Amino acid sequence: MNISLLTPEDVDTCIGLGWMMHKESALGQITFDVPKMKQIAHACLNHPDWICYVAKQGEATVGMVVGFVGQYWFSQERYAMDLALYVHPEFRGSSAAFRLLKEFTTWASQQNIRQIRCGETTRVNPEATAKLYKKMGFEIGGQIFVRPVH
Q: Is the pTM of this model over 0.70?
């Protein structure tokens, strides 16, 4: 398993992984917007506050993590946050998620931030996701509540 930065050649495959993540998640009823995904990929490739790592098994891209640096709403101080962490179902249980998260946290730690904030909002195997985050030194930092409107 190889972990590397996103390249322009990886973008379409990562959008495909994003589609898979979207379909199996609790957010599957929300529109999937390919142009928006391309904007995020562009940010990851060109903006220092955005990052994407991909996991490859041979030539196959089997996972990805997307993250960014932002500011707290009440402060000029910064945090890093994951936007997506996804591993293809056939490769869950491998080292992919751990290694992707490790690369992300290493990058994040070098960004002059106060915290790394990661979350699970997809409801795709939340117990395993929580176990991974705890293994990586994360603590529970809150909850998110959702109320559908439409």
A: yes
